[in-house]
Amino acid sequence: MNILIADSGATKTEWVLVHDNGEMEYYHTDGLNPYFMSTEQLISVIDTGLRKAIEHASIDAIYFYGAGCGSEANKEIVRNAISACFTGSLVYVDTDILAAAKACFGNKPGVACILGTGSNSCLYDGDIITKKIVSLGFTLGDEGSGGYFGKQILRSYFYKYMPQDLRHSMEEHHDMRLEIILEKVYKQPTGNRFVASFSQILGEFPDHPFIQEIVRNGFIDFADNQLTYFGDITNQPIGFVGSVAAIHKEILGQVLSERGLNLEIIIRKPIERLVQYHLERRES
């Protein structure tokens, strides 16, 4: 039985084709988010970026976990797009936060969180999500995410309170003309990705006091808004997936420790552990 497993965020999708003999093939496409893409756009990305590359293999089942797949309507949009590209395959679609929970805890309970381009969190009982944070998206929510930090970086640059050394770095790597930035933020279809791309400077200058202050404040915002949503979780293990959490794990650990919370695991990329989760169930 050949299976295809995907973990999709706002920016990119990681795919792993697992052959019945255990051999694995890895692929990448753009992120597939039904909030920002039509069925036709989803089909185009899957067809050109993946289907043609793996048309040598028959796919029995596809397990897709993605951002924007919280509602049944959005799951159906993604399911239809995948089915159009892989006719005859069984297609399962669920949320990226369930993928994070499975990657962090397998069949054990815990609080699973995502800090990627966007942010999310949930209570997981070892099988299903029992409670999930209300998703307010890029504009109203996503505390502690790449999109959140990208907005802080851009604001500090244009309001001129960003330190000069960081300003120079921004100007070396980006076209910082205000009219260009506003055009891409407000008139392009993937403004959220564009804004989140500016959070890369957090990883380039992780020890800079200004960066550390921004990161700490963002993690405080995440903890005090998203994690308090679940009530008393002081006795529960908490896991994170995403590069933002992985790069700044010390600050994240400090913020959680100050609130009596138990940070158990941080996974930069959940796809490997997600594949293992499905392989264990295929063999059982």
Question: What are the salient characteristics of this protein?
Answer:
21% strand; 284 residues; globular
Shape: globular
Cα distance, first to last residue? 14 Å
What is the average per-residue confidence, as pLDDT, rounded to a whole number?
91
Radius of gyration: 19 Å
Q: What is the percent of helical residues?
A: 40-55%
Q: Structural class, please? A: alpha/beta
Order of helices and strands: EEEHEHEHEEEHHHHHHHEHHEH
What kind of assembly state do the chains in view correspond to? single chain
Largest sheet composition? 5 strands, mixed
> Which ranges are low-confidence, i.e. pLDDT below 50, for 5 or more consecutive residues?
none
Number of strands: 10
Strand content: 15-25%
Please state how the strands of the largest beta sheet are arranged side by side: 3-2-1-4-5
Counting DSSP H or I runs of 4 or more residues, the number of helices is 13
Give a topology summary.
Elements: E1 3-8, E2 12-18, E3 24-30, H1 39-49, E4 61-66, H2 72-85, E5 90-95, H3 96-105, E6 110-115, E7 119-124, E8 129-132, H4 137-140, H5 146-158, H6 164-173, H7 178-186, H8 191-197, H9 200-204, H10 209-225, E9 237-241, H11 243-247, H12 249-258, E10 262-267, H13 271-283
